[in-house]
């Protein structure tokens, strides 16, 4: 009966396919490593005692290192400096040493295999002479034993020669046993020893079938098959049973091995589906129209969260894993490239705004010591309005710039308030307005609405008759007055609500007009920069939208004014 090295249950193409998946899983695990980590991994592998047995891992690390290095260099742009030079030179030196060692190892291995081939060929030649040289080979049984031992002691031979030389040896061994006419007890003793060895192989295979690590169990099984072939036959009545037992244990392991990789394929298919979904999420974000820094920051966090989810997903199939990774990386790169473009243009715009605000600061500082109170007050108020209309400036300079502008304004208004003439006593006016607020709060409304209306009119007239208060107190005292009126005259306040609504609509109208001016200015800034077409298009769309809103506000203002009449 033929005792094949690998049973029929698992064909060689399936084994090769599964081993490809297995090696691909190790290779792809390097995708998230950095240059330093890959270099350290290569160093550790090279320094290991069995480094030469891990050539595939070495080449996978090398491939991952140079692929990442090329990507990082491309991201670094045309910058003349090379921040990766040291780690690249170190890796080149490591790999060069490894290649030398590997070449020497391969030469030595090939030499040993050729030597082993010669040893086994010599055994075959002697065995053939032993078998074919005489009719009765029983007297040569000792020599036959010695040849078997020499065959087993010889190491591996070149792969291309393995099958032919092994088949020849098995043929001659079987021919020897067929021809031997030795004492039955001696032959039975030999059969017994072979049976004991093969029972041990069966037990080892049966124990392996319980191993939860099906990949390791499968590889250990292959070794058992190799060893099985090194032993001669057993007694004829046991041959079929012992082989069927060994084959049964082999079948269990092979089925588990195949099921493992079938399950792995299903898992990889699910992983691929999940990764495609994440690609679509990032691609959708990368295509969004984004015009504010806050949006960029929020979406950057969203991308980082998606990247974290990506890292938690296992590998897809070898065929698809690199493709889907490249797609994901491309979408992420597109987003962050657009972000860099935006901030480059935004930086130009903010620098323009800085220059404008700096000019306003210098004008305010030039006016802060002026004693032309009325004229300078109007000028500073106009400068404050311009300040509000200018967009953002670089964050590091914003606070300092604002403090300078505020200090110049405060210095002028403080001095103006100190120099107030009797007829324009700001602090006296503030005191009078506070007294008026107290009077309003002390008023007890009458049941007669006409009396309440008269009282309200009196309070308003008195408020209008009191002059200006210190500039920094204006907003606080005005709010206190309005709150007091709202508390004591709620019905009158609701009638005034319509007026405030109209005023609010008008304020929105003017603010929108200013927005349009800002958008038009931005188009001017962007047009001087490369790759700015998307932003210019967005600004134009915003202008059109703002103009539509202006028309709606005009209609609302007219309607509100008609209602007041």
Q: What would you say this structure looks like, in words?
A:
α9 packs parallel to α11 (318-367) and α10 (293-312) runs antiparallel to α11 (318-367). The protein is elongated and about 145 Å long. The protein is 80% helix and 0% strand. The chain contains 18 helices and no strands. The model is unreliable at 1-12 (pLDDT under 50). The protein has 565 residues and is mainly alpha-helical.
Write the layout of secondary structure elements.
Layout: H1 12-28, H2 35-47, H3 55-76, H4 85-132, H5 141-153, H6 159-179, H7 184-208, H8 214-228, H9 236-286, H10 293-312, H11 318-367, H12 373-389, H13 395-418, H14 426-442, H15 449-465, H16 474-488, H17 490-526, H18 533-564
Helix pairs in contact: 2-3, 2-4, 4-5, 4-6, 7-8, 7-9, 8-9, 9-10, 9-11, 10-11, 11-12, 11-13, 14-16, 16-17, 17-18
């Amino acid at each position: 009966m033929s005792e094949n090295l690998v049973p029929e249950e698992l064909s060689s193409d399936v084994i090769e396919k599964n081993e490809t998946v297995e090696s691909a899983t190790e290779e792809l695990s390097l995708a998230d490593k950095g240059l330093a980590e890959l270099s350290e991994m290569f160093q550790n592998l090279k320094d290991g005692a069995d480094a030469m047995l891990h050539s595939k891992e070495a080449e996978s690390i090398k491939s991952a290192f140079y692929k990442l290095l090329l990507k990082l260099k491309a991201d670094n742009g045309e910058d003349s400096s090379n921040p990766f030079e040291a780690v690249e030179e170190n890796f080149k030196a490591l790999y060069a040493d490894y290649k030398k060692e590997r070449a020497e190892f391969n030469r030595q291995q090939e030499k040993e295999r050729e030597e082993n081939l010669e040893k086994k060929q010599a055994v075959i030649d002697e065995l053939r002479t032993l078998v074919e040289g005489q009719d009765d080979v029983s007297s040569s049984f000792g020599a036959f034993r010695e040849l078997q031992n020499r065959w087993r002691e010889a190491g591996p031979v070149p792969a291309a020669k393995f099958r032919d030389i092994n088949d020849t040896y098995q043929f001659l061994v079987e021919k020897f046993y067929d021809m031997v006419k030795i004492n039955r007890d001696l032959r039975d003793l030999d059969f017994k020893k072979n049976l004991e060895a093969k029972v041990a192989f069966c037990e080892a295979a049966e124990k392996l079938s319980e191993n939860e690590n099906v990949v390791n169990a499968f590889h250990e099984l292959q070794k058992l098959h190799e060893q099985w072939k090194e032993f001669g036959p057993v007694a004829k009545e046991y041959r079929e049973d012992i082989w069927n037992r060994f084959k049964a244990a082999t079948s269990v392991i092979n089925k588990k091995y195949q099921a493992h990789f079938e399950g792995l394929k299903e898992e990889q298919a699910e992983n691929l589906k999940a990764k495609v979904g994440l690609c679509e999420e990032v691609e959708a974000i990368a295509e969004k129209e984004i015009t504010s820094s806050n949006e960029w920051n929020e979406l950057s966090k969203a991308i980082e969260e998606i990247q974290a989810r990506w890292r938690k997903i296992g590998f897809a199939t070898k065929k698809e894993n690199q493709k889907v990774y490249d797609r994901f990386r491309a979408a992420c790169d597109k987003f962050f490239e657009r972000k860099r473009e935006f901030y480059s243009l935004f930086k130009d715009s903010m620098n323009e705004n800085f220059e404008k605000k700096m000019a306003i600061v210098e004008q305010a500082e030039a006016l802060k010591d002026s004693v032309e109170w009325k004229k300078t007050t109007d000028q500073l108020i106009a400068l404050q309005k311009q300040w509000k209309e200018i967009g953002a400036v670089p964050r590091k300079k914003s606070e300092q710039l604002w403090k300078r502008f505020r200090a110049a304004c405060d210095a002028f208004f403080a001095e103006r308030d100190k120099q107030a003439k009797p007829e324009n006593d700001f602090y006296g006016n503030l005191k009078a307005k506070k007294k008026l607020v107290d009077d309003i709060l002390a008023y007890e409304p009458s049941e007669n609405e006409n009396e309440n209306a008269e009282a309200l009119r009196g309070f308003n007239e008195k408020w209008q008759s009191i002059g200006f208060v210190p500039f920094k107190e204006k907003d606080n005292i005005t709010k206190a007055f309005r709150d007091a009126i709202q508390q004591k005259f709620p019905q009158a306040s609701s009638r005034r609500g319509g007026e405030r609504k109209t005023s609010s609509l008008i304020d929105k109208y003017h603010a929108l007009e200013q927005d349009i001016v800002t958008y038009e200015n931005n188009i001017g800034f962007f047009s001087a920069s490369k790759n700015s077409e998307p932003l210019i298009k967005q600004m134009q769309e915003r202008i059109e939208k703002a103009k539509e809103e202006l028309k709606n506000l005009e209609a609302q203002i007219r309607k509100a004014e008609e209602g007041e009449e």
